[in-house]
């Protein structure tokens, strides 16, 4: 018997699949049939149906029609050291619409050829950005399914990406060296050893050119390290890190820290001094700081400046939190134009293969 259903697709008008909160999600469900296909019954299925509910749907005709379901959800799923499963979920979109038929009517008969069923939905404001992590995610997708009279069910699902923009020009608290504000800096004076008599300290001062960036830019790191101690400093290093915190039922259930990029310099002998002059630490494609609108997953970024002694003593770390945004600062001569060289919004990093690298050391 020749195959009747040739195509069953969910097609978005925006082929990039990237949307902002407040925009319209529009497109069509496309069905192409080879010959007369009477009594096509189309249902939308949830993620998991109880067995008795599946049986009811598979043998009932009272739900005849094409149903369409748009889902936006945040999920945290963690297994504890005791092998206990911790799960939490929050809902951002749960939109359902009927594209064909009315409740109580008989099966719809579709002629051979292509049938297109349009849909349009205004995305709510305040949606968190799409994110996929090791222990949780924020994801958006559309689902539909097509059932034939013989019980054969055709399902389809299409993911789309949401990006909630963060504009550095609207975040004055973290702009840094703008309009005379102070740059972001941190300093420490540390003595190696156990209160060695006559032993001096290592004086370290670190400054960032500002406190907010977008992927594709570079962080300007300046530092002064004066080794007044009797211990040789093996190396100094600046590292960009990402910390992801997962919440479930109001409690922190898991966290992970990754080193994303780093710069390093060589040894500093006792009495010597080393200067970092606006060294550039490149920012790879990353999701924005936090997930505004999501209460289950928190994302934070920091620049750590690390002083590692040659001896077995513990290294010294200076921490400078930064904001990762969507839109960069506008320069004075740009008027309303944004700086070039960023990765947003064309390639929101939903999948981040570099995170399979080893975690950042504590």
Automatic annotation (TrEMBL):
Among Pfam families, the record links this protein to: Arrestin_C, Arrestin_N
Chain ranges of the Arrestin C-terminal-like domain: 198-329
Q: Which UniProt keywords apply?
A: Sensory transduction
GO BP annotations of the record are:
protein transport
Q: Would you name any one GO CC term?
A: cytoplasm
The family assignment reads: Belongs to the arrestin family.
Full protein name: Arrestin C-terminal-like domain-containing protein
**Whose protein is this, by species?**
Exocentrus adspersus
């Amino acid at each position: 018997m020749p195959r009747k259903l040739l195509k069953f697709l969910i097609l978005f008008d925006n082929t990039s699949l990237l949307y902002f909160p407040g925009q319209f999600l529009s497109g069509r469900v496309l069905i192409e049939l080879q010959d007369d296909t009477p009594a096509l019954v189309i249902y939308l299925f949830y993620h998991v149906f109880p067995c008795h509910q599946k049986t009811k749907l598979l043998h009932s005709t009272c739900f005849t029609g094409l149903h369409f379901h748009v889902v936006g959800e945040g999920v945290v799923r963690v297994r504890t050291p005791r092998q206990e499963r911790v799960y939490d979920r929050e809902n951002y979109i749960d939109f359902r619409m009927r594209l064909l038929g009315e409740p109580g009517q008989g099966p719809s008969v579709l002629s051979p050829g292509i049938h297109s069923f349009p849909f349009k939905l205004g995305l709510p404001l305040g949606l968190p950005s799409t994110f996929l992590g090791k222990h949780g995610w924020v994801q958006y997708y559309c689902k539909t399914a097509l059932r034939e009279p013989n019980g054969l069910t055709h399902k389809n699902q299409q993911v789309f990406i949401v990006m909630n923009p963060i504009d550095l020009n609207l975040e004055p608290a973290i702009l840094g060296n703008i309009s005379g504000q102070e740059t972001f800096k941190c300093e420490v004076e540390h003595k190696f050893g156990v209160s060695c008599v006559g032993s001096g300290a290592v004086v370290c001062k670190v400054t960032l050119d500002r406190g907010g960036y977008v992927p594709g830019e570079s962080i300007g790191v300046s530092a002064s390290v004066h080794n007044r101690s009797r211990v040789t400093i093996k190396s100094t290093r600046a590292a960009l890190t990402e910390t992801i915190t997962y919440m479930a039922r109001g409690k922190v259930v898991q966290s992970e820290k990754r080193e994303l990029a780093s710069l390093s310099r060589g040894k500093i002998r006792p009495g010597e001094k080393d200067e970092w002059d606006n060294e550039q630490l490149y920012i790879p494609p990353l999701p924005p700081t936090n997930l505004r609108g999501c209460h289950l997953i928190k994302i934070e970024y920091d620049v750590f400046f690390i002083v590692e002694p040659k001896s077995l003593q513990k290294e010294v770390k200076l921490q400078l939190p930064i904001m990762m945004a969507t839109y960069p600062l506008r320069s004075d001569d740009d008027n309303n134009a944004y700086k070039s060289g960023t990765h947003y919004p064309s390639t929101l990093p939903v999948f981040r293969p570099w995170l399979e690298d080893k975690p950042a050391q504590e």
